[in-house]
DNA sequence: TATATCTGCGCAAACGCTTGCGTAATCTGG
DNA sequence: CCAGATTACGCAAGCGTTTGCGCAGATATA
């Protein structure tokens, strides 16, 4: 039982390997009948073209990389679904890499992509990513990069984001309309463009309502317990706070638990709105008013843009900026009570 | 500016390509000083070995595949983290494929692995997977497969599971101890070994408490709304039900919402325990008594077993069965009230 | 009928790396 | 001082595809 490769097929059919190769690629250079015969034998012998030989020969790997900070957050889980869906549909493979929010890891990972392992990259930068030389270097090697959600401002490429500023603006307005007077915003790394955007929307809403506050952005980290402490301390230090807007799904837990620890009732004493994508929002205690990003669609769109660029050998990735709106869903955590 | 490949290095250093190759692999055949020189030049020229050429030459891709049903569930999100962690640490790459619970897709995906694209597979079978010929076929080609969570019973390979029967047994006992008299279990595909295990643990607990019930397993599907209806109908049809044990994270929502729709109070009228891994369990309404699987560790362990097997060229994957226990965390959804 | 255009296929050189084997040169012990 | 072991490296044949180019024979154009 010999290995079944293209040579084997060629011998059995008395054809050359190049004809087999082209037949399998459905090349116009090969006659219909020959193609037919090749396909039949290939199926019969259960021929599977060697992926690495193809990639080496053609200098294209039919593989894309997804580089993200984590998959704890349901946002990224959903986004992966979207990316995988379009990749699978177009015969692409998806490599996944986690940076754990660390710039150094992100650099190492991208650097390794210069090996030709992937044709393109879909990524969301880490919270530490200030310098972007590693991304530029990769692009300089001809590997297209598409951002989704967390983009690097100074890189001129396609990006898929949500209307961060606008969404936060709406969420903040919502809180203010529900009689909140003193707000606080929970954020992560301020390096991130999305964090800045969200803060901006927040500030704009406050300004339009004639409210001026200071020190009202709490910078949280990765550890839920520590974040909870942070929120608790803030709420204790400034008893007037009656509204929390959380810019990350993970921080909802900290907000809820901090309130619980201080015997602050949601929404009675404090109202909460959060960026949140998990379905559990509806069954939280109380159910959570959410800003939910179209995570699946964002992943899908980002992958689509990348694959479209990969189709052209010239790799013309237009620096377009696709914005998919988030939706505000009002639930009990901001429902006015008394 | 020529392409920098192994040949280029060889020319610059007046060495042969084989020496370069071996030096980069830190082979014992190469002298320390030579290695040093090679590494220095490689770094200086920013040399990155071509991944596909390496794979082709060595017949090893340093890549593993993760094949799972979905990533909606936080279980799989966490498991991916675990898998990626050990893969990254050992210089392996992770390809991800979603079967969307469909057998046919699973078959196609595994079939494609015969192309040598991956060295091994870590997988959790789809809900439809009854026949396992496609998995056997892959193993016959010398590609090791490790199961995690959802395993195929009839395949003799390494698997990492949790103590499904025991956990459900404990969860059920917990409900019964809290005065529940009539239980119902929410399940998905009964083909799955884990479903059967969980049902078995449930039945055993009932039996030990001298309770015999029938038609007390509700087979749910993928659609949350439909599942909610299903649960609602069941609760309506049999008003005596005062305990629900859900074997899947996703079904918690359906259970909670069905109860809400029928104005059944949790835990007063109905007590609920569920397999659940997300941190949101603590802030649900009411907070949820959970059986949480060590998802991260399971992924980590599965990947470790696979990579260990890949180290030996003889690929000796012992058919061991690693069981990592889940933990029952009691919260308000089962806390006795009146 | 001679010339140009297709059609369908084969030749052979990449693609960039790995690895079995061979072989000088150096080292070891008796 | 010499046989055998050891060290450090080179040769060259793969690994399995892809693809530019060439070339017959068939068909179309003038």
Beta strands of chain A, count: 12
> Whole-number radius of gyration of chain A?
25 Å
Sheet-strand content of chain A, in percent, reads 5-15%
Structural shape of chain A: elongated
- First-to-last CA distance of chain A: 80 Å
With strands numbered from the N-terminus, the spatial order across the biggest sheet of chain A is: 2-1-3-4-5-11
Number of helices of chain A: 12
Helix fraction of chain A, binned, reads: 40-55%
Uncertain ranges of chain A: none
Tell me about the biggest sheet of chain A?
A: 6 strands, parallel
Here the CATH topology of the largest domain in chain A equals Rossmann fold
Protein name (chains A, B): LacI family transcriptional regulator
GO molecular function (chains A, B): DNA-binding transcription factor activity; transcription cis-regulatory region binding
InterPro entries (chains A, B): HTH_LacI (IPR000843), Lambda_DNA-bd_dom_sf (IPR010982), Peripla_BP/Lac1_sug-bd_dom (IPR001761), Peripla_BP_I (IPR028082)
Keywords (chains A, B): DNA-binding, Transcription, Transcription regulation
